[in-house]
């Protein structure tokens, strides 16, 4: 009886945590659920019954029609190409910058890091789009996915930098000293000692960056407007809204969206464990 009472008290003490997690899961998962259900409805049904969620009859032809109308194979390849180089470039820039701020010794280091970190709280949104486009036009990269890649990689993600520096801070500096005694330079230590120990961090940055690059819309749309064959999948999916018999074919766009989120889910399921490890170690221990 006493053991039962202890278990009950333990459950009651954790009940608010479980309740919060359940509510958070429902809130976060509802848009995905609505997209999946809406992708199986006709446009007429969506417009006539916008408050309804569950379709009366699931229309699988929406997926076939969306796939045939849009050049999904080319759009998917464009998104893979875009995401791959952004992920690789971001991992390099984020980890190198974090290593320099954590292990480097130079005047004003903490001040510079504080200024960089403060940019996390400044959101200019689309105000920067025109200056970015003009700079890209100057260098002749405004009609190519390479322009988006260069801008996203060189525009250092501050959140990734913060997590990376925290993670590198957990690595013992005795390893650096041992590598110095073996003749390693400052960046040699990073390449041969630090970087191989960053696997959970790399998985975290990779997933966060892949999600951002895969779902990026505004900048790729502007850069590929004059070259539709270079459009990534998300931009192509939005264009489905104006394809088909209706002037605004929402069912096709939702079907295309449902197809486009599958790669993101697969990547997260594969690297889920490493993602959690890198995120917690970099933000809590650091």
CATH class reads Mainly Alpha
- Under CATH, the topology can be stated as MetI-like fold
Decide which structural class fits the backbone. mainly alpha
Mean pLDDT across all amino acids? 81
Low-confidence stretches: 282-286
DSSP strand (E) fraction?
A: under 5%
Order of helices and strands: HHHHHHHHHHHHHHHH
Count of individual beta strands: 0
Distance between the termini: 44 Å
Count of DSSP helices?
16
- Give the number of domains: 1
Portion of residues within helices = over 70%
In one word, what is the shape? globular
Based on CA atoms alone, the radius of gyration comes out at: 24 Å
CATH-assigned homologous superfamily: MetI-like
The CATH architecture: Orthogonal Bundle
What profile does the largest beta sheet have? Answer: none
What does this molecule look like?
- By secondary structure, this protein is mainly alpha-helical.
- The chain has a single domain, classed as MetI-like (MetI-like fold, Orthogonal Bundle).
- 73% of the residues lie in helices and 0% in strands.
- It is built from 16 helices and no strands.
- α4 crosses α8, α4 crosses α11 and α13 packs antiparallel against α14.
């Amino acid at each position: 009886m006493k053991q039962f009472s202890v278990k009950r008290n333990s459950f009651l003490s954790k009940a608010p945590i479980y309740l919060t997690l359940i509510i958070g899961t429902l809130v976060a998962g509802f848009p995905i659920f609505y997209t999946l259900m809406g992708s199986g409805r006709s446009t007429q049904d969506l417009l006539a019954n916008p408050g309804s969620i569950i379709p009366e009859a699931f229309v699988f032809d929406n997926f076939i029609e969306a796939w045939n109308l849009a050049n999904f194979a080319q759009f998917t390849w464009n998104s893979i190409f875009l995401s791959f180089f952004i992920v690789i470039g971001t991992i390099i820039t984020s980890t190198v910058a974090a290593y320099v701020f954590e292990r480097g010794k130079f005047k004003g280091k903490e001040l510079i890091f504080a200024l960089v970190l403060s940019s996390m709280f400044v959101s200019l949104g689309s105000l920067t789009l025109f200056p970015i486009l003009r700079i890209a036009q100057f260098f002749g990269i405004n009609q190519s996915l390479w322009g988006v890649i260069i801008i996203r990689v060189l525009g250092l993600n501050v959140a990734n930098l913060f997590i990376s520096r925290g993670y590198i801070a957990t690595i013992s500096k005795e390893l650096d000293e041992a590598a110095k005694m073996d003749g390693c330079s400052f960046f040699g230590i990073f390449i041969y000692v630090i970087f191989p120990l960053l696997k959970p961090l790399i998985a975290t940055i990779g997933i966060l960056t892949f999600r951002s690059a895969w779902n990026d819309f505004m900048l790729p749309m502007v850069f590929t407007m004059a070259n539709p064959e270079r459009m990534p999948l998300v931009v192509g999916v939005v264009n489905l809204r104006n394809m088909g018999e209706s002037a605004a074919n929402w069912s096709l766009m939702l079907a295309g969206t449902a197809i486009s989120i599958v790669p993101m889910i697969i990547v997260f399921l594969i690297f889920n464990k490493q993602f959690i490890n890198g995120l917690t170690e970099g933000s809590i221990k650091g």
